[in-house]
Write a structure and sequence with these properties.
Elements (H helix, E strand, L loop, with lengths): L1 H21 L6 H22 L4 H8 L7 H8 L1 E5 L12 E8 L2 E8 L5 H6 L7 H16 L4 E7 L6 H5 L2 H12 L6 E10 H5 L6 E5 L3 E3 L3 H8 L6 H8 L3 H6 L5 E3 L10 H20 L3 H13 L8
Parallel strand pairs: 3-4, 4-5, 5-6, 5-7, 6-8
Antiparallel strand pairs: 1-2, 2-3
Length: 317
């Protein structure tokens, strides 16, 4: 899949290769001047490419294999993370991580999708596609956070809930529906952030929140462009056209009133500078936690419910 992204990133890689080659030579004024020029050219090229991504290209960036995942942000932004496993009904689901942690001196509940980078990790995490027990685990931890008055932070990054027969047998649709219902009435602040790929109900299941954020190059949609192409055109050759029609980028969703905040990414995407990306994310989460912490509980819950009930409404002309 990422080979398609390599096509539009080719000019960036070519400059990086030239810089790597130059660095093999002994230091000299001439070498340093050339490196400085290449660094400026690299910044300009990245800006041109990433400032004009198509919706399909944005989807490919959102799926970049080196993009930070939930546990990367947990390790960078939180302390004293205690992971809680299992749904107390069937088993643990590694496609969702959940637990309690400290964020800038405040205890919080954390729930997020988790993908893998190598083959072994991808299989272990089921490619970030949760089974019903994953959503039941997530809800168990969210209810625990509510019991102790802790705000909840969720991190969305999944192609969708796992569509296998086992998941259907164990009630994946019911587990998602219950999560939607229960999150709408939890009496603590909830902040959801799409950090990569937000796919269908599998993403929305941990996305009912007081604030919905999206990283600049993330996507959020009811269906993937590939699946949409297969359904509408009966082949997978119309993914770019499908992505344009789906309007799945952060800018699209803010314009539609479905997302509250776009969090800027470093030039070239979050994967080029994970530390800077974490800093940007932490600043937004800190501000939102402070804002929501001052809202009375009843108003918080009523506003969250009204927020999601109003989505998709069309005003009469």
């Amino acid at each position: 899949m990422y080979r398609k992204a390599e096509e539009f990133e080719k000019p960036i890689r070519e400059i990086q290769e030239q810089m790597a080659e130059l660095r093999r030579y002994p230091e000299s004024m001439q070498r340093d001047v050339r490196l400085e020029r290449l660094e400026k050219k690299l910044a300009d090229t990245r800006g041109d490419i990433y400032g004009n991504l198509s919706r399909w290209q944005t989807t490919l960036v959102a799926r970049h294999p080196q993009r930070p995942y939930t546990l990367d942000y947990v390790g960078q932004l939180f302390t004293d993370f205690v992971e809680l496993r299992g749904d107390r009904l069937y088993r643990d689901d590694p496609a969702i991580v959940a637990g309690l942690a400290e964020f800038r001196g405040q205890s919080v509940g954390i729930v997020g999708h988790q993908k893998g980078r190598n083959t072994k990790e991808k299989l272990h995490r089921n490619f970030g596609m949760p089974n019903p027990e994953g959503y039941r685990k997530a809800l168990r931890v969210m209810r625990m956070a509510e019991r102790f008055g802790l705000p909840i932070l969720t991190f969305i990054d999944t192609p969708g809930a796992y569509p296998g027969s086992g998941a259907e047998e164990r009630g994946v649709a019911e587990s998602i529906a219950v999560s939607l219902r229960e999150m709408s009435s939890l009496r603590v602040p909830i902040i959801a952030t799409v950090i990569g790929e937000g796919g269908s109900g599998g993403a929305l299941a941990i996305g009912v929140s007081d604030r919905v954020n999206m990283l600049e190059h993330s996507v959020y949609s009811v269906i993937s462009p590939e699946s949409c192409s297969s359904i509408l055109w009966r082949d997978a050759d119309h993914t770019e056209e499908a992505a344009e029609a789906l309007r799945l980028t952060a800018t699209d969703l803010v314009d539609l009133g479905l997302v509250d905040v776009i969090i800027p990414e470093p030039a070239g995407g979050a994967h080029t500078d994970p530390l800077s990306m974490g800093t940007n994310l932490a600043a937004v989460l800190s501000r939102q936690l402070d804002e929501l912490g001052r809202v009375p509980t009843e108003r918080l819950v009523d506003s969250r419910y009204s927020k999601f009930r109003a989505m998709g409404s069309i005003a009469a002309e």
